[in-house]
């Protein structure tokens, strides 16, 4: 493989794919897809639909099984556990790249720069030295942008910062005064752990997909409704992908 494109494809709506992304996809001979198992097969199907809609030349697809992420690796910290997972993913990518002719491509949900490990894995493959190629990153519409657009809001208040974090960090740090907090990768509805009656939440699940669901309101008034909705959606689909913004009134 002489060239790799890492292409952001938006939050799930095929119409969010940029012209630049379409042009890159039309140069690709082999697309590498990291599978998430049967429960998340819908994610693979969305990628397939995007390719069918926008690519007008022959290509092939190589699906790579995603290794499970161990919760504990010896005495490793959280960072160590994730580093171990990335190393195993990089080894699978390296194996898939071997012997590939032409131009490769990886389609990334949202944008490759925001809570995605693809670029780190690509750098690991290059550092191993067995595969030599150049790569180009194509930006995409993030779930943060999609959330703001669907709720018709600005992510930060006038003159204020916006803090992007995870559910794990939200549980540890809470919401800072005078700061809007955007939370991703939260499998535990961590907004319920944040104290105070002055918080407002803008929540969205499966943004850009047919099952897109939005809830907004004072946190203490809508948190139970969001939790019930998350549980129902997860039970029906087998997985949940959501994001939310918290801001003090």
UniProtKB/TrEMBL annotation:
Pfam families xref list: TP_methylase (PF00590)
Sequence ranges assigned to domain Tetrapyrrole methylase in this UniProt record: 4-221
EC number: 2.1.1.152
Pathway: Cofactor biosynthesis; adenosylcobalamin biosynthesis
Any one Gene Ontology molecular-function term assigned to this protein's record: precorrin-6A synthase (deacetylating) activity
InterPro entries recorded: 4pyrrol_Mease, 4pyrrol_Methylase_sf, 4pyrrole_Mease_sub1, 4pyrrole_Mease_sub2, CobF
Stored SUPFAM superfamilies: Tetrapyrrole methylase
Top-rank lineage group of the source organism: Bacteria
Keywords annotated in UniProt: Cobalamin biosynthesis, Methyltransferase, S-adenosyl-L-methionine, Transferase
A GO BP annotation: methylation
UniProt KW Transferase keyword: yes
Keyword Methyltransferase among UniProt keywords: yes
NCBIfam families membership: CobF
Protein name as catalogued: Precorrin-6A synthase
Species, as recorded: Nocardia transvalensis
